[in-house]
């Protein structure tokens, strides 16, 4: 058992060591002798001249690919200038031999068909066994020498001209002629071959291939009229002096000659006169090339690497040209790139942009703070509301709880009175009568306070309902006032009642009107000294009735005349006042009047007296309410209750 186990372990250790050794040797093989700090020398052979966009993009891709790990790279450039002059192979060979025969390059990059064809001729003599990366190769059947074949790998372009043709056919459905402005370069020749093949697919459109050296010759060869032809720009032409003309100028010349849209599939041809089209991306090809260069410098064997074939393109357009030819941007393929688009943001100067961004950031911050504050306040408000509801509920409950025992005390006292009257009880001491009266009065005061609290709570909670019926308001006001007459006179105050009319029927809650009157009268009594007057007047105002309760009492200061209608507010504070009261009366009175659709106001002068003016609308009840007759019906008892907080002198 023990022996079996240790054999297993030994086998495992052997396997692990084997795996580690193989992995390391594979890794070491890939990275053999790769010292990333020693200088690398790369020769880049371009067929064009140095200011070509295309070459610049390929080079930036190579640099990008290598810079990740190779910090010390020396790039040497050689331009064949094939567009400007015809290549003389013997001349090139001589030139290259003198320049490069004794140079050792780690890598050679050739940037298109022409460059590769030249290298093919001189490779064995000058650069034998140096690894080569070729790029942007259009000629798929180019035969390389055996040595070069073995030491080279690259990126081949597979761009299909059909993409450009079908795009233009879709954009201009009446196009009858397409002028293809090509030249005599290898890639132009390859494109021309492809266009010729495609002609059979498009019966209604003639493909006119123009391949020449001079611009005048090219212009003469353009076909089609101003309405139904378009031009494709690719070739580079010379003027009559043999000077290469730059692409912007050629575009303008061709445009003025044909007055028709110019399209292209080459990035180098994008300018404000050329609309654009499906563009082969130099950057993309540069990246792919850079990746191959990196792998070779990293020790990978060229012979085991495969060519990369690139067929990707992007729809790129020039804003000015789109505008010039009235091409609607909405009709362009999705994901199209529009160069030079004058979006509002682009036109704004940098400093202004920074300020705008700063302002937006500050505003956003302020809005966030504001929203947070609002949310916080809402939370507090909700909490306060919840607390208020809880308090109101508590008030309602406690008030009801207080009223029950109080009613029992009051009815017991009333029963006692009855027994007294019937002679069933006799108090031997007069002081007991007085104490019993004080007991009654204070119980009533408590009951009044509790009733007011319950009503206010109900009004707040929206549960307070008036019990309307059609009543003669004049009669009701007069009766309740006259019921208080004795009481008022006992206080040595004169009560003078007067009315303009005897009958005015309207829809009111009689009990509440009586309470309003008694509250105003009780206040008038409280704040009017002996010998003073209280006037109750009724005025007819057609659709309204006006009732005033006026006294010649102490009056109310101007600045207090509004706050007395607020709940629990009194003119004098608890410590200085000499009259009892809770400060609820006027607030409740005002609410009751407003519930009738009326209004209450006060006019008062200090030392002269106060006048409370009620105005109530006269209207008939639509339907009769069920009036709760449980309320106290005995006017004397109502007076006792409402006047219970007036001091007996
Ligand atoms: P209270 O129960 O304290 O009387 P009210 O709401 O009825 O409460 O009155 C509020 C305050 O208004 C009184 O405390 C008093 O200061 C003032 N007030 C009311 N009526 C008169 C009046 N006729 N003359 C002078 N002051 C008055």
From TrEMBL:
SMART domains named among the record's database cross-references: HATPase_c (SM00387), HisKA (SM00388)
Residue ranges annotated for the Histidine kinase domain, each copy included: 397-620
Uppermost EC category: transferase
Gene3D superfamilies: 1.10.287.130, 3.40.50.2300, Histidine kinase-like ATPase, C-terminal domain
Pfam families, alphabetized: HATPase_c, HisKA
Transmembrane segments: 352-372
InterPro entries: HATPase_C_sf, HATPase_dom, His_kinase_dom, HisK_dim/P_dom, HisK_dim/P_sf, Sig_transdc_His_kin-like_C
Entry's EC annotation: 2.7.13.3
Enzymatic reactions: ATP + protein L-histidine = ADP + protein N-phospho-L-histidine
CDD domains named in the record: HATPase_EvgS-ArcB-TorS-like, HisKA
GO MF annotations, alphabetized: ATP binding; phosphorelay sensor kinase activity
Keyword entries, A-Z: ATP-binding, Kinase, Membrane, Nucleotide-binding, Phosphoprotein, Transferase, Transmembrane, Transmembrane helix, Two-component regulatory system
Protein name: histidine kinase
Organism in which the protein naturally occurs: Clostridium senegalense
């Amino acid at each position: 058992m023990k022996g079996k186990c240790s054999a297993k372990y030994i086998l495992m250790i052997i396997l692990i060591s084997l795996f580690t050794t193989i992995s390391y040797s594979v890794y070491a093989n890939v990275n053999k002798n790769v010292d990333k700090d020693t200088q690398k020398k790369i020769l880049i052979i371009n067929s064009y001249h140095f200011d070509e966009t295309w070459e610049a993009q390929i080079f930036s891709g190579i640099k990008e690919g290598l810079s990740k790990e190779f910090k010390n790279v020396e790039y040497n450039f050689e331009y064949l200038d094939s567009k400007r002059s015809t290549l003389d192979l013997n001349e090139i060979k001589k030139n290259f031999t003198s320049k490069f025969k004794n140079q050792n390059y780690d890598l050679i990059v050739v940037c298109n068909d022409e460059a590769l064809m030249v290298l093919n001729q001189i490779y064995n003599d000058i650069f034998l066994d140096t690894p080569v990366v070729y790029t942007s190769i259009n000629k798929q059947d180019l035969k390389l020498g055996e040595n070069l074949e073995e030491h080279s790998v690259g990126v081949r372009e597979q761009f299909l001209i059909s993409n450009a043709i079908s795009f233009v056919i879709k954009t201009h459905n009446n196009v009858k002629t397409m002028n293809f402005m090509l030249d005599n370069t290898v890639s132009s020749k390859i494109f021309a071959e492809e266009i010729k093949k495609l002609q059979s697919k498009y019966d209604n459109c003639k493909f006119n291939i123009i391949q020449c050296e001079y611009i005048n010759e090219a212009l003469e060869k353009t076909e089609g009229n101003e309405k139904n032809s378009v031009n494709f720009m690719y070739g580079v032409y010379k003027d009559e002096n043999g000077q290469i003309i730059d692409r912007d100028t050629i575009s303008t010349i061709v445009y003025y000659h044909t007055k028709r849209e110019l399209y292209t599939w080459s990035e180098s041809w994008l300018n404000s006169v050329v609309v654009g089209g499906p563009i082969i991306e130099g950057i993309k090809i540069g990246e792919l090339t850079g990746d191959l260069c990196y792998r070779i410098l990293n020790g990978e064997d060229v012979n085991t690497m495969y060519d990369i074939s690139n067929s990707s393109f992007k729809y790129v357009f020039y804003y000015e040209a789109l505008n010039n030819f009235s091409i609607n941007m909405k009709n362009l393929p999705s994901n199209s790139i529009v160069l030079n688009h004058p979006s509002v943001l682009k036109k704004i100067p940098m400093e202004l942009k920074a300020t705008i961004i700063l302002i937006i950031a500050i505003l956003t911050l302020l809005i966030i703070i504001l929203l947070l504050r609002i949310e916080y306040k809402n939370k507090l408000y909700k909490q306060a509301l919840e607390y208020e509801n809880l308090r109101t509920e508590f008030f309602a409950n406690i008030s009801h709880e207080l009223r029950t025992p109080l009613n029992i005390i009051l009815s017991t006292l009333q029963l006692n009175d009855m027994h007294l009257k019937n002679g069933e009880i006799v108090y031997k001491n007069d002081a007991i009568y007085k104490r019993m009266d004080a007991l009654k009065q204070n119980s009533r005061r408590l009951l009044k306070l509790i009733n007011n609290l319950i009503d206010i709570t109900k009004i707040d909670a929206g549960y307070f309902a008036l019990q309307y019926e059609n009543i003669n308001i004049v009669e009701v006001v007069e009766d309740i006032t006259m019921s208080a007459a004795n009481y008022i006179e006992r206080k040595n105050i004169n009560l003078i009642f007067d009315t303009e009319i005897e009958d005015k029927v309207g829809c009111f809650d009689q009990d509440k009107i009586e309470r309003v009157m008694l509250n105003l009268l009780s206040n008038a009594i409280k704040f009017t000294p002996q010998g003073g007057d209280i006037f109750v007047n009724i005025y007819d105002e057609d659709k309204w009735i006006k009732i005033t309760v006026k006294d010649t009492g102490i009056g109310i200061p101007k600045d207090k005349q509004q706050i007395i209608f607020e709940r629990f507010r009194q003119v004098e504070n608890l410590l200085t006042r000499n009259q009892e009261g809770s400060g609820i009366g006027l607030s409740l009175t005002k609410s009751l009047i407003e519930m009738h659709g009326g209004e209450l106001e006060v006019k008062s002068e200090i030392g002269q007296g106060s006048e409370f003016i009620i105005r109530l609308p006269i209207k008939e009840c639509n339907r009769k309410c069920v009036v709760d007759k449980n309320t106290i019906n005995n006017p004397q008892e109502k007076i006792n209750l409402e006047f219970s907080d007036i001091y007996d002198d």
